Amino acid sequence: MWFNIIPIAIILISGAVLVYIITKKFPALTNLDLATLPQEREKMVKHRIISTRLKRSWGRWFTITKKFIQPLLSKISEWVKELYHKMLSARENLAADKAVSDITEIEKFFAAAEEEKRKENYEEAEKIYIRIISLDSKNIAAFKMLGQLYAETGKLQEAQETLAHVLKLTKEDAEVYSRLAAVEKENGDLEKAQENYLLSIKLNSASGLNYFSLAEIAEQLGKTTETAQYLKEALKIEPKNPKYLDAMFSISIINKDKAEALDAYKTLKEINPENAKLGEMKKQIDAL
Question: Over the stretch 42-56, which tens digit does the pLDDT of each residue have?
Answer without folding.
Answer: 566 556 666 665 566
